[in-house]
Amino acid sequence: MELVKYLWETTTVFLQNYKMKNVLKVLHLRVAIGAKEILRDVSLVVKSSEVHAIMGPNGSGKSTLAYALMGHPSYKIQSSKSKVQINGKNIIHLPAQERAKAGLFLAFQSPIAVPGVSVFNLLRAAHQEIHGADNFSVSDFFKLLKKNAKELRIEESFLSRGIHDGFSGGEKKKMEMLQALTLAPKFAIFDEIDTGLDVDALKVVARGISLLSSQGTGIIIITHYQRILKYLKPDVVHILVKGEIVKTGKAFLASEIEEKGYEKYAENN
User: Fold this and answer.
1) How far is CA 100 from the centre of its chain?
2) Which residues contact 167 (CB under 8 A, 6 or more apart)?
3) Which of 76, 101, 145, 148 has its Cα between 20 and 30 A from that of 38?
């Protein structure tokens, strides 16, 4: 029994260390759209299970950061010093699909509908690409999808519908959350996922993000205000103004922004 106990404890420690090993580093990121530079030397580090909130006023570059990290071709890197690394590997020149395979996920602010492609088929194909075709049988994958849908209060019938086709704004945001939970990326970026959600849906999405974080995914939440952060305490808060991170702190920083706004940071930048 002592040997069994030792092996169990050793295996548990190994798995905990394995889950915690992923590190996302954004280094000296400078990004332009056309001739206009939007991000100016942005750097941050996110580790497994950490929740980082990126806050800032309209036009500060928050969504640009999300799309640049995911490799949107319209967002051009402006410096040879700019790097996006996962576990030391620079992925900044990889296309979006390869970044997804490397472990990045982006939940869109305004998800588009894909009629004719069901939620199940899309996520099954994406899961196979990221985790391997033999990792789950069809029935096991459907059980996983149903479990995650139940966690997010998504009706099972939605899984056979076209992705976002005819969905309400709140349903789309919960569906983005379902994708993240099912694909289990190393790092997930949520671009204003709280926009347009009522209180009940907001709580559901916040709970989903907490669950994702507890399973080892590093989280970046991009938001204007503290709404979702009332239900989801971030480990780190970054204030982004005019394309630069001007302040980094703990969760209290979000409360300060809620009370006083961004004016003092905008004035000093």
Assistant:
1) 11
2) 113, 158, 161, 175
3) 101
| Amino acid sitting at position 110 | S
pLDDT tens-place string over residues 235-248: 999 999 999 999 99
Residue range 52-106, pLDDT digits in tens: 999 999 889 999 999 999 999 999 999 999 999 999 999 999 999 999 999 999 9
Tokens 């997010």 sit at which residue? 152
Which residues are CB-neighbours of 20 under 8 A, at least 6 positions away? Answer: 47, 48, 49, 216
- Residues 156-176: tens digit of each pLDDT: 999 999 989 888 888 999 999
From CA 205, how far away is CA 87, in angstroms rounded? 28
Query: What are residue 190's DSSP bridge partners?
Result: 107, 221
Give SS3 for 211.
Answer: helix
Q: What is the CATH number of domain 21-267?
A: 3.40.50.300
Whether the predicted pLDDT of 268 surpasses 60: yes
Judge contact between 56 and 241, C-beta under 8 A: yes
Q: CB of 24 within 8 A of CB of 218?
A: yes
Q: Tell me the whole-structure pTM to 2 decimals.
A: 0.88
Could you identify the residue written with the tokens 């702190």? 249
Strand, helix or coil for residue 26:
strand
Tell me the mean pLDDT in the region 214-220. 96
Question: 163 and 119 in contact (C-beta within 8 Å)?
Answer: yes
Domains of the chain by residue range? 21-267
